[in-house]
Amino acid sequence: MMDGQRTPFQAYRYLLPALVLEVGFVFAPLALSLYYSVHRVRYYQLGDFNGLQNYIDILSHRLFLNSFLVTCSFSLMALTLTFATGFGLALFLNRDTAGSILLRTVVLLPYVIAMLVGSMLLKWIFSTDAGLVPLAAAWFDVASPTVLADPEYAMAAMVANGIWRDSAFAMVMLLAGLRSIPPNLIQAARIDGAGSYMIFRRIILPLLRPAILITLIRLLLHFANVLTFPLILTGGGPNNATDTLALRIFRIGFEDFDLGKANAMAIVLCLFNIAAVVLLLAVFRKTRGGQSL
Amino acid sequence: MIFESHSGLLRRLLRGLLSVIIVVAALFPIFWGLMTSLKPTRDIVQFPPSLLPATVTFEHYVTIFKAGAFGFLLNSLLVSAGTVVICLGIGALAAYGLARFEFPGKRAVMVAIIAVMSIPVASLLIPTYTLIAEIGLVNTHIGLILVYSAYQLPIVIWILAAYYQSLPIELEWSAMMDGYSRLQALWKVVLPLSRPGLIAAGLFVVVFAWNDFVVAVTLLSSEETRTLPIGIYNFLGFYGREWGPLLAASMVSTIPLLVVFVILQRYFMAGMTNGSVKG
């Protein structure tokens, strides 16, 4: 602290390697991406300046609107259900008994293993070959669906993949928030005669707002950019029903080899992320005036 | 009183039931994948499916190791180790700069750290590929390690800076009065005391580097450089619906990680919330 006054820029000697790495491999790529997005690129060869043609092409492509809608509906469903599951888990496991500690670790396992592996394991469960879906259908006496070949079931499977993997993330973030609430506040309310529901709504929820907001933002960004789930679990199908924006970019870049359009789309996705976060913040602010939060 | 103990019992029963449901939901896919990987090929698709293998076989594991899984495993180890070394080395310095100095631009640096932590990797893939291709590091481990380090450094810095701040600054002062330079004080006093923070940060980096699929599939193209997840992805194209080798490869990726994680999980949870990691 004291050295700060003497040589104000001394700290940068410590920060320099990190800054170089971040500028080199996070910010420079974004800048280069902007440059590529306004050029014609075929098979990785940078061509002429192209203006906004790449943007016009991708936005007017017949699959763009589909990917946009798929991404929105997947994000919304996965966000809501994952958050709800994670919140439930956090409330259920917010105690330090041996059982709760063990359960928290168990819930984290799907989050810790590779996304690719998790999606592969679920692909195997949902596949007709495994025999689990026909077995379950026989139990409930309904016709056995081919889950990954039906547009609606495939989307549901992808949402299930999200809940299975990412509820743990929401749980840990919200648990940390719950831990930061002073216990004597809740005791005092209880002495004053407040019931569990009242305590939850008037004390826990308001104090949890920052943790809730961070959890929602990180989950939303994660889901809106999801690539591994559709790439492994559904392949984007059937009939493009799970073709997310990130998957579309991946395909334009590495199957059509068009880095100009792919970079333009990556920029669009970044803008989409910013818009999504801004929208979420606006919704969150609105609820402040209301009774619910 | 009777009513109360009744409802207490009911509560306990409900808790138990819910716990069982949670365990099954979380673990069944992993368990079922492991069991399937141990079944002979003809038993894998039998209907109705059996939960446990009637005969245990390691044939699928032999298949994938013959198909080069050992090389992929080594590549994954190399890349993960390289990324941890770079991240902890550079991160320990940068976190010290943030934790112990006031300087112009500090706020901007903090905001940038949070921004990079929030940028989803998928939206950076094409730009990163473009840059890495431009500087000729495509299909090299060093390129992959540098990109992984850039993605994981922010969280490492965040965890370590919070940890340093929880240490009494007087220790460094007295070390410096004994003639240590700042860097020596960092190396000989601060870092040894920061072990829990270093473990948490390192665990994060390992989990990311070991598991990453999307960055590696973008940057690596040849058989020799492939990491384990890319190996599995290519098996998916190669074996198609032959689930035995696919799930065996998945287990080879999962089991070492789960062992490390279960041993060190409390550090991981503390790191996830970016709070200080108390030893």
Structural domain tally of chain A = 2
Total of domains of chain B: 2
Strand order of the largest sheet of chain A: 1-2
Uncertain segments of chain A are 1-5
Tag the structure with descriptive keywords.
heterodimer, A: 293 residues, mainly alpha, MetI-like fold, two-stranded antiparallel sheet, globular, disordered N terminus, B: 279 residues, 2 domains, 13 helices, 78% helix
What does this structure look like?
The complex is a heterodimer of chains A (293) and B (279). By secondary structure, chain A is mostly helical. Chain A has two domains: 25-60 and 258-293, no CATH class; 70-243, MetI-like fold, CATH 1.10.3720.10. Helices cover 75% and strands 3% of the residues of chain A. Chain A is built from 13 helices and two strands; from the N terminus they run ααββααααααααααα. Chain A has a two-stranded antiparallel ribbon. In chain A, α3 crosses α13, α4 (62-92) crosses α8 (151-179) and α8 crosses α10 (196-224). The longest helix of chain A is centred in the first third of the chain and has 31 residues, at 62-92. With 279 residues, chain B is mainly alpha-helical. Chain B folds into two domains: 2-44; 66-278, MetI-like (MetI-like fold, Orthogonal Bundle). Chain B has 13 helices and no strands. Chain B has helices at residues 2-37, 41-44, 59-66, 69-100, 106-118, 121-134, 141-165, 170-177, 182-193, 195-211, 214-219, 228-239, 243-272. In chain B, α5 crosses α7, α8 (170-177) packs across α9 (182-193) and α10 (195-211) packs antiparallel against α13. At the A-B interface, α2, α5, α6, α7 and α8 of A face α1, α4, α5, α6 and α7 of B.
